[in-house]
Each structure stands twice: as C-alpha cells, then as structure tokens.
Design brief:
8-stranded mixed β-sheet, alpha/beta, single chain, 10 helices, Rossmann fold, globular
Length: 306
C-alpha cells in the first residue's frame, strides 16, 4: 500500500470503533504501518464490551494487505503507553505520528456528577493525552520530526449541557496541544487538535428529549460519519502538513472548520485603577457588547451538514 503516509509508523488510540477505527484503516490505506490501541470496552459504563477490538481492526488491515498490530492497554496508564511506543519502535522500527481519539463519556449535570465520573473522564481524555504525548515526544525529538493529532470537542470550545467533565478535559487537551506545538516547533514536532462531529458510540449516548434533540441526532447519524473525520486526521499526520501546527480544526460531514483561539477582544482601563464598584458601574458594562453568550454547540452549528 502506498499513499501520503507511505513508510510511516502511526499509533492510533481508540482504534476498535468509531473515529479511531476509521483513522487506523485510512492510515493503513495511505501506506502506514499501524499500531491499533483499544482496551475493548464501551464508552459508557453500562455498555457491554465491544464485539470489535483493537485486534479486529488490525486483522482487517492485514487482510487488506496492510501491516498492523494491536494493543489493548489503557491510555490512562503511563507505563502502558510507554509500552505502546516501544511496541511501535520494536516491531516497525520507529514511530512518526500519534492519532489520539480514545475516549469515554460520563455525562451528567454538574450538581449530580460524582467524583468517579469526573475522574474517569479526566483520566482518559486529559491524562491520556499527556501520557501519549510524553511517551512519544522524546522519540520525536531524537529523530527531528513527529506529529500529534489529538481530539478535542466543541463541548469544551463552545459548551454542551451535562458535559462539564468532558468539556473541561477537552479544553485541557487543546491547551496541552498548543504548548506541545510551541515547544516542539524547533525539533520538527507538530501538534494539532480536531473537534469531530460524527455519529459514533459516544454520540449515540445523546439523550432524545424533544423534537429538537431528535432532529439533532438525525443530523449526526445521517450526515456526519466517522469516516468523514479520518481524512483530516491522516492529512495532519502526514509530511504534507509539515507547516500546520498549533491549530484547532473541526470535521463536520464534508466540511473542515478552523477554530479561532482565545485572544483579547476588548479591554477597560482607568489610569487611577479600578474599584470593585467602579467595575460594576462602568468597567464590565463597557465590555458587555463583546461578551460571549451561553449558546451551546448546537446553536452555533445549527445548519445541516454539508
């Protein structure tokens, strides 16, 4: 197999299903040798173990003429993630890119959220992103090149009710990726984030409470597929995107979105300094026109997928 990843070695987390599986399959079709990682259980606590596993995806790649191995360790364990990197180097002779969509959901309103649900989501998404980055970055520095493709979410960038744990973790991933890109620039290391829109095992958990949510779910299922996210991830992992780093993208159906990143949008100053009452009376009102509203992700992406 040849393509834009010809000769590359790529580690894909969450590769048993959804976006991870599609990324692993496409990376292989584009010429990469792939380490497919997945622990093999559902994204929700009450879901049975997946029928599909990391080995299922790896076997599918091999059956199509590609080169892949599987790994069933958790991204939450640093030693295990170091083992994934070592597995790639030992079996395939190196590692060139990490595509990291592994994830779980434990949705609830904050006033009902348990510590366990908070901790488990932070562990998989944020700790997992640290683990995979820390485990691979030394190797990337030594060889003078490497690409991270982390996965964020509009739950963090914009917000969604009932996902404070998920949103906080994904905003953390965006911050990690940004600094990783800054620190790695002089060594040819790139890091970008994709906020995906796709009907997967994770988005299938969206509750349908009314007609609006029913229509939203229908748009996800019919017009935003996991295989439409994979091309962006694979492109960002390739040498063809060697000048793309530190960015946050969205993939929604056939649309690729570039997100803005926080920058000052206004200021209020007084030569003699602000008092608390002065801020209430004049400072904050002067900035109000530039406030960001509380609209959720669906209020921003309120059009049908392209």
């Amino acid at each position: 197999m040849t393509g834009i990843l010809d000769g590359k070695v790529v580690l894909v987390t969450g590769g048993a299903g959804g976006i991870g599986r599609e990324c692993a399959l496409l990376a292989a079709r584009e010429g990469a040798r792939v380490v497919v990682n997945d622990i093999g259980q559902g994204v929700l606590p009450d879901q049975p173990d997946k029928v599909s596993t990391a080995e299922t995806t790896a076997a599918e790649i091999r059956a199509s003429g590609g080169d892949a191995v599987s790994n069933s360790d958790s991204v939450t364990e640093f030693a295990a993630v170091m083992g994934m990197v070592e597995q790639a180097i030992t079996l395939f002779g190196g590692l060139d890119a990490v595509i990291n969509p592994a994830g779980i959901l434990r949705d609830n309103m904050l006033h009902k959220m348990t510590e366990a649900d908070w901790d488990s989501v932070i562990a998989v998404h944020l700790r997992g992103a640290f683990n995979i980055s820390r485990a691979a970055v030394g190797h990337f520095r030594d060889q003078g090149q490497g690409a991270f493709v982390h996965f964020g979410s509009t739950s963090g960038l914009i917000g969604n009710l009932g996902q404070s744990n998920y949103g906080a973790a994904k905003m953390g991933v965006a911050g990690l990726s940004r600094i990783l890109a800054m620190e790695g620039a002089s060594r040819g290391i790139r890091s970008n984030v994709i906020a995906p829109f796709a009907w997967t095992q994770m988005t299938a958990s969206i509750p349908v409470r009314d007609e609006a949510s029913r229509l939203r779910v229908a748009r996800f299922r019919e017009g935003m597929r996991a295989d439409q996210v994979a091309p962006l991830a694979v492109a960002l992992a390739s040498d063809g995107a060697a000048d793309v780093t530190g960015q946050i993208f969205g993939a929604r159906g056939n649309e690729v979105i570039l997100f803005s990143q926080p920058r000052p949008v206004g200021s209020a100053s007084r030569p003699d300094g602000w008092s608390a009452s002065g801020l209430v009376e004049a400072g904050l009102p002067s900035l109000r026109a530039r406030f960001t509203d509380l609209g959720a992700s669906a209020s921003i992406f309120n059009y049908d997928p392209i």
